[in-house]
Design brief:
Layout: H1 2-29, H2 32-58, H3 65-77, H4 83-150, H5 153-160, H6 174-195
Helix pairs in contact: 1-2, 1-3, 2-4, 4-6
Amino acid sequence: MVSWIISRLVVLVFGTLYPAYSSYKAVKSKDVKEYVKWMMYWIIFALFTTVEVFTDMFLCWLPFYYELKIAIVVWLLSPYTKGSSVLYRKFVHPTLSSKEKDIDDYIGQAKDKSYDTLVHFGRKGLNVAATAAVMAATKSQGVLSDRLRSFSMQDLSSYQSDPVNTGPGVTQPAPTQHRTKTMMRSKSESYNKATS
């Protein structure tokens, strides 16, 4: 565990932060030789980081694994060994030069496919959103029509067919009042349930 922590700190400080600051200095000074040196380092470091993801999963049980990683980072960075320049010039540059056209074609195809995929899923997303909007509108129409049906002509005619005295101060008989209130309460409750 201690070796892991130390290796992570070394990779962070000496593998990332120091080269980043040195790259900043190279950009600021506009020294082309320094540009090239640090660009080679960053290319090699990107490859190192990619390989490190897989080796950390499968080789971390090896004795002195983390110490080896520290040694590799120091070797890549050292101005005496010029490890990143050696790896770049002997392996990476020749390999990338011979495969550059294939890699560019693959990246172009990937861009085209990603654009097509984005458009395809965008259309599907819009279709799902439109379907959801139509369904929501349909459901709200159902609630509205149920509400309107609750005050249909049949309800009004049954209400009017009850004997009502129209004289001043005269009220409906108690059973008729009770039935009318019950009918209105049940309609109100069914509307509340439908909107919930």
